[in-house]
Amino acid sequence: MVVDRFDSDGLDRLFAALSDATRRDIVERVLVTEQSVSSLARRYDMSFAAIQKHVAVLERAALVRKQRRGREQIVRGDVDTIREAESVLERYRQLWVDRADRISDLLRDSRVAD
Questions:
Q1: Which class for 5: exposed (0-12), middle (13-18), buried (19 or more C-beta within 10 A)?
Q2: CA gap 70, 102 in Å, rounded
Q3: What's residue 57's pLDDT?
Q4: What is the pLDDT of residues 53-71, one digit of tens each?
Q5: Which helix or strand (DSSP H or E) is residue 94 part of?
Q6: Residue 65, domain extent
Q7: Tell me, what CATH number does 103's domain have?
Q8: In the chain, how many H helices and how many E strands?
Q9: FRET partner for 89 with CA separation of 20 to 30 A, picked from 3, 6, 24, 54?
């Protein structure tokens, strides 16, 4: 049995957070290197407050962690959460592979019976 780190609501928050292109871009950037919210805000054509809201959504989904360092809020990606998302998607992929294998077996068996 696979034990998920996230409950259903947590997975909903995770994939909802990743459904936005800006948030995916922020996650990619902070997985490479931690960045302050203000440095992230300079990269996008939107307000500082809008970037703060995106970071808050990512933080609630556990995709990033935010830490205050002096006057700055430093954001870094959470690799464990990315791995969890990968494992969830892998389980879905495996369901389809198993289904395709069963269909293939049925087709092979029907050819042998003919």
A1: middle
A2: 58
A3: 98
A4: 999 999 999 999 999 999 9
A5: helix 79-113
A6: 8-113
A7: 1.10.10.10
A8: 5, 3
A9: 54
